[in-house]
Design a protein that fits this description.
The chain is mainly alpha-helical. The chain has one domain. The chain is 86% helix and 0% strand.
């Protein structure tokens, strides 16, 4: 009887600890979600509140849009080439090779272009924003802005959010063209398609809504990337280790949010 009671007590303690861990994790998640929501609402409010720091906005647009173009271009180019090759290999099994051009253009404009561009920009820009703002936090430069009557959220965060939301759709639009061109190169020069027929198939089933979906996704992804970079950098821990942790968290959280937002936006467009 005593051994049974001891066993029951041990099981109860383990179950109690397990439930505590679940509750603690849920509460931490809700607290983090609330802090990010308040941070984003405050930052969006400062976007529309003068004074406007045009020089900061211009610098961020150049950094996000211009300097990210090579990475996005190479990623979408080879993704389009691989997609054309793999589609041809798969569709050849049931004699549907003629649909390769349509599959490439729809896949790139709807999914591959926005998602791959978002992930590449998240790795480059999200980390850069978190490291830059985190370093400013560690070296007390953000506190110095307060003493100079300059609001850090308005000066540092708002231009980055606006630039990310503006630039990523343009990056995706260029990436879509490059990705489709990559599929064209493989289709014509590797798989032997007629160039005019391939182009006709590319444009035959492409609709404005397909491109619009990709651009809407890109704008959402750009906002999320900038938001995560700014949030984790703004709340960075002290020292080099804190900045490194903020950089890692910014990239990981932005990548996860991109995939979640991708599903949500797709459901809004095609969920019926």
């Amino acid at each position: 009887m005593r051994s049974f009671l001891q066993l029951s007590g041990t099981v109860f303690r383990h179950m109690h600890g397990f439930v505590q861990n679940i509750g603690r994790t849920a509460l931490n998640f809700l607290a983090t979600f609330g802090r990010i929501t308040l941070f984003s609402v405050t930052a969006v409010r400062w976007i529309f509140t003068p004074p406007y720091y045009w020089q900061q906005l211009h610098r961020q647009i150049i950094d996000i849009g211009y300097f990210s173009l090579p990475v996005v271009g190479l990623t979408t180019l080879f993704s389009g080439m691989v997609l054309a090759l793999q589609s041809y290999t798969g569709f050849a099994r049931f004699s549907a090779e003629d649909t390769v051009a349509t599959v490439v253009v729809l896949s790139v404009t709807r999914e591959l272009g926005p998602v791959l561009a978002g992930l590449m920009v998240a790795g480059r820009i999200g980390a850069s924003m978190a490291a830059e703002i985190g370093t400013m936090r560690v070296t007390d430069q953000i506190d110095a802005l307060d003493t100079l009557s300059t609001r850090p959220m308005q000066y540092l965060v708002a231009p980055r959010l606006l630039a990310g939301t503006i630039c990523l759709p343009f990056l995706v639009l260029v990436g879509d063209v490059i990705g489709v061109f990559g599929g064209y190169l493989v289709g014509v020069y590797r798989l032997g398609f007629n160039p005019s027929i391939y182009l006709a198939r590319t444009l035959e089933y492409l609709e404005v809504s397909d491109v619009t979906l990709g651009l809407v996704k890109a704008a959402v992804f750009g906002f999320l990337i900038a938001l995560m970079g700014c949030y984790h950098g703004y709340h960075s821990g002290r020292g080099a280790q804190g900045v490194g942790r903020a950089t890692t968290n910014a990239v990981v959280s932005a990548s996860i949010l991109i995939l979640i937002a991708n599903y949500i936006v797709t459901t809004m467009f095609f969920g019926g």
